[in-house]
Structures are given as structure tokens and as C-alpha cells.
Amino acid sequence: MTLRLPELWQTSPVAFWLVVACLAYFVWMAARLAVIDIRSHLLPNRIVLPSYWAALPLSIAAAFGSAGAFDGGAVVRVLGAGAVLWAVYFVLRVIYPAGMGFGDVKLAGVLGLYLGYLSWEHLLWGTAAAFLLGGLYGVVLIVLRRATGKTAIPFGPFMLVGAAVALLLPA
């Protein structure tokens, strides 16, 4: 996303400022949620739920991001990606409730909005990165004998880092 900003400034300054505001909020939200999840294994609603509203300007930025011409498909992609990622995490939660908290499900919808702004591929890469990083962390803990296969690991920080990595990928 950050690589797209100079082009966005040239084509649509309003969309540029919407994206910059959303990215600034993302950094604040990610830092707060990561610290809280690491300390308490919770992703509080007071931060996650307002993040949906803070990410919605991305749909407007996507709609008017290409030379000011309205792009309804981009709006559908942003909102659809949020819904799809929420649904995927919800299914994982239903299948194995001990493996994922509902805070992770709610956070997934927010991250889907951010990743959907760029593309469906970014959504896939951000999600894959989260599971890869979380899995590697778990394996390292097991190898170092600091955890077992039953040890609870906060997954929110890995979701946030995976999304951040994907946001830095070229569009």
C-alpha cells in the first residue's frame, strides 16, 4: 500500500489522504492490540470494533483512487475481502474453538478491509504470512521446550504482522 501512495497522490489527493489516515490508524491499532494480546491473550472490542469504521474510508479511497473515476469493483473488493476473511476465521473458530478466540475473528474482518484495498492476492499473502509466522513461533517454542502443543499462543500479533508485511508488498 505504501508503494502505491506516490501514484495515488498524483491521481487523487483526497484518496491519498484517506489512505494515509487509515494507515496511521492501522499502526496505532496494531501496536495497541499486539501489546494487549501478548499480555492478556485478549483483543478488546473497544479497539477492534471501532477499527471497522476507521478502515471504511479505504473503500472510498479505492472507489476514487484511479484518476478520480468511480470504480465500484474496488469497493466490492474492499468490503468483500473484509467479509471473506471474517468468514474464514469464523469457520476456523467453529471447527476448533480452543485454537482461536473470537477476538481474532473480529480482527480478521478489519484486516481484510485493509488487505482488500490492494488486491485479493494481498489478502491471501497477508493471511498466509500470519499462519506461517504463528506456526514458526510455535515450533520454535516447542523446540526450545518453552511450550507444548497445547500451549496457548496469542495469534493477534501474527495476524497484524502478516497484514503489515502484505501492505508493504508491491500492488
Automatic annotation (TrEMBL):
The keyword Transmembrane helix applies. PROSITE patterns: PROKAR_LIPOPROTEIN (PS51257). The chain crosses the membrane at residues 14-35, 47-68, 74-92, 123-144, 151-169. GO terms for molecular function: aspartic-type endopeptidase activity. One of its GO terms (cellular component) is plasma membrane. It comes from the Bacteria. Keywords: Membrane, Transmembrane, Transmembrane helix. Residues 25-139 form the Prepilin type IV endopeptidase peptidase domain. GO terms for biological process: signal peptide processing. Pfam families: Peptidase_A24. The keyword Cell wall biogenesis/degradation does not apply. PANTHER family: PREPILIN LEADER PEPTIDASE_N-METHYLTRANSFERASE-RELATED, TYPE 4 PREPILIN-LIKE PROTEINS LEADER PEPTIDE-PROCESSING ENZYME. Belongs to the peptidase A24 family. This is Peptidase A24.
